[in-house]
Amino acid sequence: MRYAELISLYFERSSAIQSYWTVYVFAIGGLLAVAALRREPDVLAAILASVLYCAFAYKNLGAIHDASMNRFATLDAIRHFDASSVQSPEASEVQSARVAIEPTLVPPPYEGVRNFHVACDMLTILTLWALQWRRLRYQRERNTQPKPV
Q: E strand or H helix at 51, and its extent?
């Protein structure tokens, strides 16, 4: 594999990770928007939404993990690329690209990414249920108020 192809693969994996995060943020926003707009409490719907969200978050984190591992492997291949194996004009291009590009290739450790994802998952579920409990409380308050005669 050529050095330019490795660099391209690294950024393609980075773009894939960014896409997974974008889908994740939209899913959280959509879930919480629908939950916030509901007027009547529905515990069954909240349970189903929680379970489905957890399944989605689990698969999303798995996709981020796989793409991150691909990116780390690609970065390792970039760092260990043997520039002496290429022809002379291309070798100087590889060396100048190495000096300019490689110091900027610093992906975050996967453990931090995973911890952030899990923390956001817990906050999302907590918010979903806080909205549900608020609806239940308002419903109880409405039911205990005296009816006008």
A: helix 43-79
pLDDT at 83 over 80: no
What's the rounded Cα separation, in Å, for the pair 120 and 72?
A: 24
| Residue range 116-133, pLDDT digits in tens | 999 999 999 999 999 999
Contact between residue 7 and residue 54 where contact means Cβ atoms under 8 Å apart: no
Kindly give, in sequence order, each residue whose CB lies less than 8 Å from that of residue 83, ignoring residues fewer than 6 positions away: 3, 91, 94, 95, 98
Question: Does 64 map to a domain?
Answer: yes
Q: What was the pLDDT predicted at 146?
A: 76
38 pLDDT exceeds 80?
Answer: yes
Query: What domain range is 129 assigned to?
Result: 3-144
- The residues, any chain, with a CB within 8 Å of residue 80's CB and separated by 6 or more, are none
Which of the 8 DSSP states describes residue 146? P
Domain total for the chain?
1
Three-point CA angle 121, 122, 126, nearest 5°: 120
pLDDT over 90 at 65, yes or no: yes
